[in-house]
Specification:
This protein is α+β, with helices and mostly antiparallel strands and 184 residues long. It has one domain: Nucleoside Triphosphate Pyrophosphohydrolase. The strands form two sheets. A three-stranded antiparallel beta sheet has the order 3-4-5, sandwiched between helices. A two-stranded antiparallel ribbon has the order 1-2.
Amino acid sequence: MRSARHVFMPHMYVFPGGRVDAGDGRVAQPIRLRPAVSEKLERDVSAHRAGAIAMAAVRETFEETGLILGAASETPAASRSPAWQPFFATGLVPALDKLDYVARAITPPNNVRRYDAHFFLCDARHLSGELKGNGELEDLHWVNIAQANRLHLSPVTRMMLEALAERLASTSGEEVGEEVVFYR
């Protein structure tokens, strides 16, 4: 749930995420997005921007929830970006290959507060860390889609849950693990 301190959508349940920082596009990506995911993103943005958006999703999720989408790498990660220091202190690098692209949401042009968000999905089995917040989000906990739909959701969160439910329904008969959506 977004903190009461937020002017935009306070007390609403949302997916973790936030803006792309300058460092997100400069940090090395030893584990890149899968080609199919890159292709989807690159319909709207450059290849460089697609990588930065995915990196921001991983970083913001770690900052706001303590959950790490990372993997060991022969190339140790390093960055001068202060935003990436805590993530790299875990000894892992972002595992962008575990991300799937869900959708992009842009607020209508006449809204006072606007966002242009890209939503990603990953299987929770690829996450590590302890679910704990940094204060931006409160009441962090895992819920299934039915439980989530009973929460006070932002309209875009509700829309993404519908897209997620459709996606999971189309994979019926296949093994599907617990999944989490997060966005940048």
